Amino acid sequence: MSDTSADHVHDDSDEDVPPSQDLRPDVPHSARLYDYYLGGKDNFPADRAAAAQVVQLLPHVPAGARANRRFLGRAVRSAAELGIQQFLDIGTGIPAAGNTHEVAQAVDPTARVVYVDNDPIVLAHARALLRGSQEGRTGYVDADVRDPEKILGSAESRELLDFSRPVALICVALLHFIPDGERPADVLARYTAELAPGSVVILSHATGDLMDADKLAAAASALQAVNSSGVSLTPRTHAEVLRLFEGLELLEPGVVPVHEWRPDGDLEDVVLPRSHANAYGGVAIKP
Fold first, then answer.
1. What does the pLDDT read at residue 4?
2. CB of 114 within 8 A of CB of 138?
3. Residue 190: partners with Cβ closer than 8 Å, 6 or more residues away
4. Angstrom distances, CA of residue 169 to CA of 21, 41, 89, 155, 188
5. 108-121 pLDDT, tens per residue?
6. CB 37 within 8 A of CB 67
7. Bigger pLDDT: 16 or 167?
8. Does the pLDDT of residue 89 top 70, yes or no?
9. Is the pTM value of this prediction over 0.90?
10. Which residues contact 179 (CB under 8 A, 6 or more apart)?
11. Between the CA of residue 147 and those of 49, 50, 116, 133, 284, what are the distances in Å?
12. Higher pLDDT, 11 or 138
């Protein structure tokens, strides 16, 4: 990665801009839980305690998180190979191997990426690490997915993304944090309405569909543990995830367990049982 500020939309003065919410190490955050599952170190005792409760009940959750991360990489690469040069990655999470700009710019060095998240730790890392190629650009927006006006109208989005041309919208492991009462399909539709024809939507979503019958009780306890920690998680069925793609044209193989979406021979994906995937993934084009 380049270390020059020229390839990043922020300048040095941005380092003094406080994030939109206080850092609360005593309250688990979804980005830090995911970091824990991926084997990262950017989490606090409260995050580790909540995540450990889940892993004790469902030891395969970290494997599912890794499979979801690999899905992101394959889906971004597929979008870039379709000629997409602009990416809006909402719910970025703490930087890990295979970030969106790294995958996209390996295909097209001029690709531009705007990352969005609402955790101050993600903000700090993004400014330090999520820097694009010499030819491409990256930017970061500190915002919640439920605030599309802020995200779409941000200086970063306006500077780096041209919504009159195709954009890849990425909502990976994100919409299950929006409860039914907040209408996640409507939230997503607000973004897709802004996308030009030929744009791509990349989405993955937690599900309980794939669980073995003997694991359902453990899954229910794990879900209760997550929700009681303050992180709202709503797994959805295949039919419910499919409805999120309404009005879009799904690419083959459709909505499938994340490790089955255009697998590339990764050995961990090859041996991963369906019951350990934890999530559906799909990619669709706006007609």
1. 33
2. yes
3. 148
4. 24, 28, 6, 17, 10
5. 999 999 999 988 77
6. no
7. 167
8. yes
9. no
10. 232, 234
11. 29, 27, 11, 29, 23
12. 138
DSSP β-bridge partners for residue 280: 205, 257
C-alpha distance from residue 121 to each of 8, 23, 44, 65 (Å): 18, 8, 11, 19
Beta carbons within 10 angstroms of residue 237's beta carbon: 13
Q: Let me know: does 145 contact 91? Beta carbons within 8 Å.
A: yes
Residue 18 amino acid letter: P
- Average pLDDT value for the chain: 87
Note the pLDDT of residue 43: 85
What per-residue confidence (pLDDT) applies to 130? 57
Is the per-residue pLDDT at 123 higher than 90? no
State the pLDDT at residue 132: 55
Cα radius of gyration (the chain): 18
Can you name the residues that pair with 257 across neighbouring β-strands?
Answer: 280
Bridge partners of 256, per DSSP, are 281
